Amino acid sequence: MILNTLKKTTTKSKKRVGRGYGSGKGGHTVGRGAKGQKARSKVPLYFEGTAMRKSLIRRMPMLRGKLRFKSLKPKPLIFNLKHLNLLPKNSTVNAETLIKHQLLPQEAKNYPVKILGDGQLKHPLKVALPTSKSAAKKILKAGGKIIKPKPQKAKKPTVKKATKPTKAAKPSKKTPKKTVKKPAKKPAKKPASTTTKKSTAKTKK
């Protein structure tokens, strides 16, 4: 048995802070020092050195007001008109052709592209991208065309009509009529012939 491996059977009581110098923890200041910000018990989370002048609460309404009308859509990639001269004549200009001729990176597929009117266009092109007014004039002047994309109509969700359950044939309330068999008519008896009566009368005499 080794003494340093024995389990502890006693526990020390926690220091009772703020109970004077006899408690062993700094007396009435309790390890917080003398006055100042860190000596206070309640320092708000938003405190940044000044009470309200530069605090977070003071700045937030200003930021909300400034960025309230800011668009959340991604900004378009700007492509100037003078760089379109690198494309072949009468070719359609869209994001795919610009990426194909290494005029835009592959990541441009995920962003909109807009053409601005910086420079001059030397040959006609079919532009299928949004352009500025000055760029549109220069494209038409060079004999090109501006193809506007057709607005895609939102497809209405096809809702399947619920088929009505077929009604089961209800049992008829009318009870079937009982067929009563009529008794067969007995044949009528024929009257006795007159010859027999006369013969009987003669025998009696």
> Could you give the distance between the termini?
164 Å
Which structural class matches the secondary elements? alpha/beta
Major sheet size, sense and barrel closure: 3 strands, parallel
The count of DSSP E runs of length 2 or more, i.e. the number of strands, is 5
Shape descriptor reads flat
Q: Give me the side-by-side strand order of the main sheet.
A: 2-4-5
Known CATH architecture of the domain at 77-146: Ribosomal Protein L15, Chain: K, domain 2
**What is the radius of gyration?**
55 Å
Any low-confidence stretches, pLDDT <50, length ≥5?
none
Percent range for helical residues? 10-25%
Average pLDDT level: 76
- Under CATH, the topology of the domain at 77-146 can be stated as Ribosomal Protein L15, Chain: K, domain 2
The string of secondary-structure elements, in order, is HEEHEEHEH
The share of residues in extended strands comes to 5-15%
Supply the number of helical segments.
4
The top-level CATH class of the domain at 77-146 is Alpha Beta
Characterization of the model:
By secondary structure, the chain is an alpha/beta fold. It has a domain of 70 residues: Ribosomal Protein L15, Chain: K, domain 2. The protein has 4 helices and 5 strands; from the N terminus they run H-E-E-H-E-E-H-E-H. A 3-stranded parallel sheet has the order 2-4-5. A two-stranded parallel sheet has the order 1-3. The longest helix is centred in the N-terminal third of the chain and has 11 residues. The termini are far apart.
